[in-house]
């Protein structure tokens, strides 16, 4: 199974020929619902076959095209490895499938273009960040997103930790209850009892760690969230040189914390920030719209044209809503006629991909969360 990436989305967007099949369906890992998933796919494939035949495919041709999907029906192991949504893409030359950690309603598209909205939603909502777990006994760096987390292997940091001889007061952190969140008073008391020499020793060590962390993260631009006992974070913040260090931190000792625990604690801080940013973006759009500014638009055709020219700064698109049209090469205008077929495209997907490609931020939202009761809304650059 390929990893979902922006380059892959662009590649799939460019495909344009008869008989491209896109399937999205809710899935479950366990229980009776898991068994129902196979029946659900079987029914979807029957409908897909009927659509292919209506497009001119013979019965045997349609069955052959759908064969990679049909084989999955009897693959018990495949159905044990599902997430919230299964996405399947079939053409005469390729077959792709993805397990998505986001919820998507059942969708079948048989057209000259793949329907990519749920993939775009997943990719655009997966905020990337880093977590630095700091303790006297171990220091670990993680890269994470809304749905995953994994450790970044940095041998230089491992070596620094191995060769570091901490202050005596810090030796107890890994095993003492004082390391847990809520033990701030005890820890601050321990910190206040340290000599200046011991504090200088810790700061020197943290400065060395910061040098390596900044080296590893320098090109990512992703926020860095520190997970440490109360007094370590301000000390690290003081020596930090990485420009994207977050003001908040995860409080408590990270020693012994599982990946899931670290991710859950991180998301408690990250999610409100993401939501706050979205609310500010919507407020900005509404302000521009309220003043009849030319820097806002809620016309899907105009927005798609602007996105193709790199003029979309922020784009809001309603999830599940489709708008089909084509680019008139003579006028350069996008014509919406809601017809599928040769040289036609789902213009909202096209706008989303173009906006992302040109550095714009995109949001695929439930209809109720859209700034306006329209399929799309945008803040333009100029």
Overview of the structural elements:
- The chain is α+β, with helices and mostly antiparallel strands and 382 residues long.
- The protein has 3 domains: 17-111; 129-272, Nucleotidyltransferase, domain 5; 277-380, 60s Ribosomal Protein L30, Chain: A (2-Layer Sandwich).
- 42% of the residues lie in helices and 21% in strands.
- The chain has helices spanning 6-14, 31-54, 59-65, 67-72, 76-79, 117-125, 155-163, 184-192, 196-217, 232-239, 259-290, 300-308, 347-357, and strands spanning 20-26, 85-90, 95-100, 107-111, 129-134, 139-144, 149-152, 224-228, 245-251, 296-297, 312-318, 324-327, 334-336, 345-346, 361-365, 376-380.
- It has a 5-stranded mixed beta sheet with strand order 7-6-5-8-9.
- Helix 12 packs parallel to helix 13.
- It is globular, with a radius of gyration of 26 Å.
- The protein starts with 5 loop residues before the first helix and ends with a strand.
Number of helices: 13
Strand order in space, largest sheet: 7-6-5-8-9
**Which of globular, elongated, flat, extended, rod-shaped describes the shape?**
globular
Q: How many beta-strand elements?
A: 16
The structural domain count equals 3
Q: Poorly predicted ranges (pLDDT <50, ≥5 residues)?
A: 168-189
Task: Characterize the main sheet.
Answer: 5 strands, mixed
Q: From the 3D coordinates, which CATH architecture of the largest domain would you assign? A: 2-Layer Sandwich
Residue-averaged pLDDT: 89
Task: Spell out the key features of this protein.
16 strands, 60s Ribosomal Protein L30, Chain: A, five-stranded mixed β-sheet, 3 domains, 42% helix, Nucleotidyltransferase, domain 5, four-stranded antiparallel β-sheet, globular, 382 residues, alpha+beta
